[in-house]
Amino acid sequence: MYRETSRECLLSRNVCLWDTLVTPLNSLVHAFCCHETGATVLAMASRHQLLITGGRKGCISVLELARRHQRRSFQAHDSPLKALAVTPGEGSFISGSAEGNIKVWSLADGNLLHNFPNEHARQSLFRNLGTGVMQVEAGPANHVFSCAADGTMKMRVLPDRYSLAAAGNNNNNNNNTHHHGNLKNDIKFII
Asked: What value does the mean pLDDT take over residues 111-140?
């Protein structure tokens, strides 16, 4: 049994894999150095044996556990990552940041698929609440659930390749689909 943890410092490595079935002296399986100031969130793509990590400086790293190496690392957000989730089919993953943005990324190549800027931006100047996305979850049928520090919860249905192609054929200047994968007006409910 393996357990993933993130630490700010363990011999300058901050994402560590531990074997919890052996003695503590021999339990460190592998340590990755991928986030300068520490990892804040982790998500696992089990079928691909990939660990996705998010850091305080907005970087995402994709780690191959079987080969014990870092597949890629890239700047995903301008603020700390606070939430990660892998879609049920493991074709993509979702990141949420302290600035309130949610982004959907391809697991295969790391390309940005969808961008939801200010999805959970601070609404009040007078309350000193934590800001940004607190949690994201991916559900079946392209559903994405997210919640914020202010208690709001939102659900979206992500478009698939067929709905995007149909929207592009119906109206090339569609206001709901923007350059770089920005989608607007497709929130199904807010609590």
From this structure: 81
